[in-house]
Amino acid sequence: MKDVFPLLRRPLLFVAGVLTVRGTKFGKSRLVPIHASTRDVLIRYRTRRAKHLCGRDAAHFFISGTGNPLDGGDLRRTSYTLSRQIGLRGPNDSYGPRLHDFRHRFAVETLLGWYCSGEDAGRRLPVLSTDLGRVRVSDTYWYLSAHPQLMALAMSAPGFPALLQSFSTGRLMQRRQVSSHMIASYRDGFRLLLHFAQQRLSVPPQGLTFEQIDAPLVAAFLDDLQDKRGIGAGSRNLRLTAIRSFFRYASFEMPTNAAQIQRVLAIPSKRCSRAQIGFLTREEVDALLRAPDLRTLSGRRDHALMLLAVQTGLRLSEITGLCRRAFCLSTGAHVRVVGKGRKERSTPLTKTTANVLRAWVREIADADDAIVFPSARGTRLSADGVQYLLSKHVERARQGCPSLRDGTLNRYP
């Protein structure tokens, strides 16, 4: 309640519905939003206060009958008198409602409102801590353990489906804003995990609890991926990375399951051998570039695509996602792409590549967002579509290239 004493008369707060509190603990000031009804009461009090002062000036907003600043004793005596009048304190009782109970009630009611409305009280706790003027957010956690109803609500952890949805939409998409490729990878991994858990536990995904997704289940799921689906150690580690990321998020949301979370995070990754990176010789590249039939639209597209891939070294996803606006085919020809880690780079183009691309873009739509290498339906080429057209041209190029006939080509140059 000491925050009430330093309130000055002229904070421009009632119109905007914001209360300016100055000179509180550690010399800090803060802005506190107030309800419209509270603002109206304060405005009426200010009018009566002005009449009471009769033109005199007073530094403090709340004053006594003599126009002096209120002190703690005045507030306590007024509180005792009012609580006895309404029956909350007996005539001779030395205990009853205290001034700080108003502050505690505000904190408890705010937290209860967040929990009852389904909001994430843990993430909004810094807002309450600021309103209360706390120096550390951890001090506000006291209310969660001091009030029985709040403690019960805080201990009632969210279900596994709700937690997984919060991780996907809240953490990955909104806060971290990860790429669509990462979201798709995590989605596929959890889809496989939910399918495996349903078969093993005979529980549908919407009925799973967090406690059921324990370390033995996760380890069995990873082994099943390798044994039945035939994936390699690298793909297994990729699925484990998604699961670890989810459980790290859950460690902050469900601290009561810390032991279970720790056991899942302790599952080790498997070592895997790294194959030597293959490459194409000049003769193999020339044979592939001669393979497409330049008399057809798809042949000219494939020729331009492979020439660009050989000259720039762009990733498959970067090539298939290129739009017209990514190319500058005039003086200083180059292509701009946004790759992994949202890093943008420009790669210069040779004169031959620029000429081929300049002729090719005349055959596609004029819009800046038009896909440069579209499929037959006019949409973006998929990875399987690129593999199909490469396989087709490799078969034709093998007729005149002995090394390609030996099968040494990687399908994704």
Please, could you describe this protein's structure?
By secondary structure, the chain is mainly alpha-helical. It has four domains: 2-67, no CATH class; 100-155, no CATH class; 160-265, Orthogonal Bundle (DNA polymerase, domain 1), CATH 1.10.150; 282-405, Orthogonal Bundle (hpI Integrase, Chain A), CATH 1.10.443.10. Helices cover 52% and strands 5% of the residues. The protein has 17 helices and five strands. It has a three-stranded antiparallel β-sheet with strand order 3-4-5, with no helix packed on it. Helix 9 packs parallel to helix 11 (258-265), helix 12 (282-290) runs antiparallel to helix 13 (297-312) and helix 13 (297-312) runs antiparallel to helix 15 (351-361). The radius of gyration is 34 Å and the shape is elongated. The protein starts with 17 loop residues before the first strand and ends in an 8-residue tail after the last helix. Residues 4-13 have low confidence and may be disordered.
Sum this structure up briefly.
By secondary structure, the protein is mostly helical.
H/E topology pattern: EEHHHHHHHHHHHHHHEEEHHH
Radius of gyration: 34 Å
**Biggest β-sheet: strands ordered side by side in the sheet:** 3-4-5
Distance between the terminal alpha carbons, to the nearest Å?
Answer: 72 Å
Largest sheet: 3 strands, antiparallel
CATH class annotation of the largest domain:
Mainly Alpha
Under CATH, the topology of the largest domain is which?
Answer: hpI Integrase, Chain A
Question: Pairing-aware structural class of the strands and helices?
Answer: mainly alpha
CATH superfamily of the largest domain: Intergrase catalytic core
The CATH architecture of the largest domain comes to: Orthogonal Bundle
